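Tokens for chain A. Residues wanted.
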């Protein structure tokens, strides 16, 4: 009997949850989306950090009020439709039981309070790494969100008592009126937001912010979806199942695939041959130099916005500290965020060519005064300090969400395009006062007609259908230079993409950024035509070293053919504090550190964990392999081994500092953390540019100092200096 009663209770609970499934899923989606991803607390830190500036104080509180208003709207809408679903479809005999009555009363209220609880968890996590007014604001927002959750539940309880005391006055008509208002308001809001995201997702995402957009998406979709389910329940029409079946059907046949990569008008320019790029680089060097000329190669690892900011910051600070640095950089191999940082650096290098200090960077005799700020640093910081996350969220939750239901693709609704446009606009504001930048030019012609030294860019992606590395490149490496590497020009010769598109194509990591379709391939044996899709280069190998090692080998041989006495210098830019690398000079990885025990489901999750960890291990092996070959000698055209220099720069974990996110927005504190860590790691390179010291031997000497100083973990005294720098005490 007890077992039967338990079964009946569980059955009733399951049916109650089934009736409120739409508003329950909506509230859970909001709560989890704003609290679980590491990017969302970083978005709250962006808002909290603005409290430090008194001129931004009004905007901070206005935005806070806006987020709160969206949480109220979402919570009330979810509560209302949960209550209506229970009231309309709960069996009448069940409603006679007190336990069911309490469930029908309190469950909708809890569903309405979930968005506020998610905001409280998000702002509580955001407190990590904040100090002063910013930390106080985050704490205040946390407490306020909890108070608002309790207040919402209390007001709904009070509403019930008022309605019961005035039943004759209000009657039941208010329920229908409220439903109509909620439904019409949801549809109208959704139409406005869809129109806005279609016209300008960049301004929409940056104006509203990612947190408010998540709340608005639930407010828009829950009411009409709950209304459809409620209408279908009496007739036993499985609305949700039909919608899921429709989505599965059009997705099965790729009828809604609108993720075609954005292309430029016109025909592609001829891509620069590899040997031509070497000759261009050689033309910037001193042919009479008695000492070896540093030929610099850079590998920029992936890692979202932190990798992009880290890559651009390292290259810009090296440019400022090492006069003539940019003149010696031959190629940059980037992955994911590292590709974005490399593209921003190349663009900033071009558009700051006339700024003070550019002559010293180019390796000329003139040097800037010692007090000149790092113009190149400022250009890249302002570009990557913009919100690149809000635009893609705006496009994903509205225009691209609607596209999932349409069997006809609308390429303009592709969410990846919003991120590319956001990067281009940020670069225009930071570099050219609104004029087009290098990011908007075709990558094929990047090495032509340059105002400043332009490194060859190899932006790594992964081929979905083939599983191979595919580099979107500004040069055309010959086949003998490659080891399992393809280029986009090999697979799709007619592709004509901009530098920003190429960089973001390298950074399309699941699921925020979709796989990019760049054309089609025909099977030579069967004649079958298949789509050619590319995703983040980190799926294959996340360090960028595997591609770079191929380029180092061939470029060293090609330079020696041109009778240049070069010394290869590889700079590996990493951004993951947990990267496991080899000891310098050894081609063997250190054992992985012991990690806390992972949760269960071993048989289910072990294959997935293995695939993810294989990706990381492959990058570590490629990094160690590159370091070993460079330091033990690269063979030139005469068969001689040329021992090069390997410089490793990475971010490090610090006690009390928040973990930098893998998303696409950084707070001012996170950016300051990266800037200070880079400055500390590059300290052995000497003072900032201004000494007029541009000779290759001195540049090589400083690079050797960096190679000796930057391997290994962060010393305790250096961590204390970085803490002082981050918090503005330096």
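Reply:
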């Amino acid at each position: 009997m007890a077992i039967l009663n338990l079964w009946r209770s569980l059955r009733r609970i399951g049916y109650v949850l089934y009736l409120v499934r739409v508003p329950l899923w909506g509230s859970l989606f909001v709560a989890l989306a704003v609290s679980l991803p590491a990017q969302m607390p970083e978005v709250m830190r962006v808002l909290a950090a603005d409290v430090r500036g008194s001129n931004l104080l009004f905007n901070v509180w206005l935005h806070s009020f806006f987020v709160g208003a969206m949480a109220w709207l979402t919570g009330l809408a979810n509560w209302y439709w949960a209550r209506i679903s229970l009231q309309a479809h709960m069996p009448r005999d069940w409603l006679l039981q007190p336990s069911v009555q309490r469930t029908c009363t309190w469950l909708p209220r809890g569903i309405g309070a979930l968005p506020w609880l998610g905001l409280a968890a998000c702002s509580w996590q955001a407190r990590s790494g904040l100090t002063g007014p910013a930390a106080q604001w985050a704490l205040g927002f946390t407490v306020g969100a909890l108070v608002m959750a309790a207040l919402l539940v209390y007001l709904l309880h009070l509403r019930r008592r008022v309605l019961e005391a005035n039943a004759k006055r209000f009657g039941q008509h208010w329920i229908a009126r409220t439903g109509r208002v909620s439904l019409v308001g949801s549809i109208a809001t959704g139409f406005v937001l869809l129109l806005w995201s279609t016209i300008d997702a960049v301004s929409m995402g940056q104006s509203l912010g990612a947190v408010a957009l998540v709340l608005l998406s639930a407010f828009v979709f829950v009411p009409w979806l709950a209304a459809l389910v409620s209408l279908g329940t009496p007739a036993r029409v499985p609305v949700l199942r039909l919608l899921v079946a429709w989505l599965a059907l059009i997705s099965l046949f790729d009828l809604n695939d609108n993720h075609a990569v954005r292309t430029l008008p016109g025909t592609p320019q001829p891509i620069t041959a590899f040997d031509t790029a070497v000759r261009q680089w050689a033309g910037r060097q001193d042919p009479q130099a008695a000492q070896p000329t540093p030929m610099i190669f850079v590998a920029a690892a992936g890692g979202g916005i932190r990798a992009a900011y880290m890559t651009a910051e390292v290259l810009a600070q090296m440019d400022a500290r090492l006069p003539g640095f940019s003149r010696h950089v031959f190629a940059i191999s980037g992955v994911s965020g590292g590709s974005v940082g490399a593209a921003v650096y190349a663009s900033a290098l071009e558009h700051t060519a006339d700024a003070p200090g550019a002559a010293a960077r180019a390796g000329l005799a003139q040097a800037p005064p010692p007090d000149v700020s790092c113009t190149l640093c400022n250009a890249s910081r302002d570009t990557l300090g913009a919100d690149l996350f809000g635009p893609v969220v705006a496009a994903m939750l509205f225009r691209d969400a609607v596209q999932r239901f349409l069997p006809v693709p609308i390429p303009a609704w592709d969410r990846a395009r919003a991120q590319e446009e956001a990067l281009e606009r940020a670069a225009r504001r930071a570099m050219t006062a609104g004029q087009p930048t290098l990011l908007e030019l075709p990558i094929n012609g990047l090495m032509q007609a340059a105002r400043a030294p332009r490194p060859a860019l190899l932006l790594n992606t992964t081929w979905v259908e083939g599983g191979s590395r595919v580099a979107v490149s500004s040069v055309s490496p010959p086949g003998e230079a490659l080891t399992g590497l393809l280029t986009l020009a090999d697979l799709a010769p007619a592709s004509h993409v901009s530098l920003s598109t190429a960089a973001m194509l390298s950074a399309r990591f699941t699921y925020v950024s979709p796989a990019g379709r760049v054309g089609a391939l025909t099977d030579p044996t069967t004649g079958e035509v298949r789509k050619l899709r590319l995703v983040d280069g980190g799926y294959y190998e996340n360090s960028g070293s595997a591609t770079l090692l191929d380029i180092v080998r061939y470029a060293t041989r090609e330079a020696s053919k041109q009778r240049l006495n070069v010394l290869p210098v590889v700079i590996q830019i990493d951004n993951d504090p947990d990267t496991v690398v080899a000891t310098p000079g050894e081609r063997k990885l250190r054992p992985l550190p012991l990690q806390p025990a992972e949760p269960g489901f071993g048989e289910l999750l072990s294959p997935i964990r293995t695939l993810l960890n294989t990706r990381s291990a492959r990058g570590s092996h490629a990094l160690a392999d590159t370091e070993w070959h460079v330091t033990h000698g690269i063979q030139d055209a005469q068969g001689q081994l040329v021992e090069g220099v390997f410089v490793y720069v990475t971010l490090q974990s610090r006690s009390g500092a928040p973990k930098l996110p893998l998303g696409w927005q950084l707070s001012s504190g996170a950016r300051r953390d990266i800037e200070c860590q880079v400055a500390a790691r590059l300290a052995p390179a000497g003072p900032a540019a201004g000494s007029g010291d541009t000779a290759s031997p001195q540049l090589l000497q400083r690079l050797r100092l960096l190679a000796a100083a930057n391997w290994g973990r962060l010393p305790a005294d250096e961590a204390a200096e970085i803490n002082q720098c981050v918090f503005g005490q330096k």
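The longest strand covers residues 293-300. The chain has a mean pLDDT of 82.
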